[in-house]
Design brief:
About 35% of the residues lie in helices and about 15% in strands. By secondary structure, the protein is of the alpha/beta class. It folds into two domains: about 120 residues, NAD(P)-binding Rossmann-like Domain (Rossmann fold), CATH 3.40.50; about 180 residues, 3-Layer(aba) Sandwich (Rossmann fold). β6, α7 and β7 form a beta-alpha-beta unit.
């Protein structure tokens, strides 16, 4: 069987596929294929190892009904119309465990960076604005004993909560569809409603999937319900927050600060006003950008395809 890999992923997964006798073609260009190029390229392949950069929508799937399996290089798969793939008998897999620690680390780092205005103050050195000691300038927040609110208490949310509780003895609350028994047992986390999460959190960290329920759920109305001393952290998807509303909440003092690894749009414009706020830290969607995480993402995405063709249960099947 032939496998098309749509970006130049780490060799770990590529070697696994080749070892199993699968024919592998890797798109090794820096820019992703256009939708039309992807459709045309896919005609000679039975398996597709894709990334979040590819739009696997209904139009694509209707033109590539011959595919057996689509395996996502990553945990999120909101770029894939999973229901349509299921109707066409195309299996869809992902790599859910690969980036848990790496993304939790980024959420934790953004919390620290925003709370102490690190990104803004680093830039002030580059522009020769260090100046003299001023006792009331650039004051940040101390995090010890704060209440951490987790929106989406899955693997990454749990690890973020564990880090915050261990480092700063934070009280943990969470908003989730279901009860997270491990979080409640290990971290004494309390399940709350969405409004309670907004009202009680000192740090609100977002770790949900992007879907019709979560799209723009953090909007002007949500920010209005948050504490004016609250930090908003988002490492999930940029479309979970309404970016203009977030900017207004920050400049008006409705909330205190924000740390973002995801934005809307991506890439972010270099003149976006959010980038120039003192109480904001932004990274360019690097939550999974560690050697270990990217290697494991490559292996898990490849393993989905191998399991499918070996006739085994695809462990990380999402449809």
């Amino acid at each position: 069987m032939n496998v098309l890999i749509t970006l130049n992923i780490p060799e770990a997964g590529i070697e696994l596929l080749k070892k199993e006798g699968l024919q592998v073609d890797v798109w090794r260009h820096d820019t992703p294929m256009t939708p039309q190029e992807l459709v045309e390229k896919c005609q000679n392949f039975q398996a597709l190892l894709t990334t979040g950069m590819d739009s696997i929508n209904k139009d694509f799937l209707q033109k590539c009904t011959h595919l057996n399996i689509i395996s996502q290089f990553g945990a999120g798969y909101d770029n894939i119309e999973v229901i349509e793939a299921r109707k066409l008998g195309i299996a869809v897999g992902n790599a859910p465990d690969a980036m848990t620690d790496a993304t939790a680390d980024i959420a934790f780092a953004l919390m620290l960076a925003a709370s102490r205005k690190i990104c803004y103050l680093h830039k002030s050195i580059l522009t020769d604005e260090w100046g003299f000691f001023s006792p009331r300038a650039h004051l940040g927040l101390e995090l010890k004993g704060m209440t951490l609110g987790i929106f989406g208490m899955g693997r990454i949310g749990f690890e973020m909560a564990k880090r915050c509780q261990g480092a700063y003895q934070m009280k943990v609350i969470y908003c989730n569809r279901s009860i997270n028994s491990k979080g409640e047992q290990d971290l004494a986390a309390g399940k709350v409603s969405f409004d309670e999460l907004l009202e009680q959190s000192d740090i609100l960290s977002v770790h949900c999937a992007l879907n019709s329920e979560t799209r723009f759920i953090f909007n002007a109305g949500a920010f209005q319900k948050m504490k004016d001393t609250a930090l908003f952290i988002n490492t999930s998807r940029g479309l979970v927050h309404q970016q203009d509303d977030l900017y207004q909440a920050l400049i008006s003092g409705t909330i205190w600060g924000a740390g973002l690894d995801v934005t809307d749009p991506e890439p972010m414009r270099p003149d976006d006003p959010l980038l120039f706020l003192e109480n904001v830290a932004i990274t360019p969607h690097i939550g999974s950008a560690t050697i270990q995480a990217r290697d494991e993402m490559s292996r898990q995405a490849a393993q989905n395809i191998i399991q499918y063709y070996q006739g085994d249960r695809v462990v990380n099947l999402v449809n």
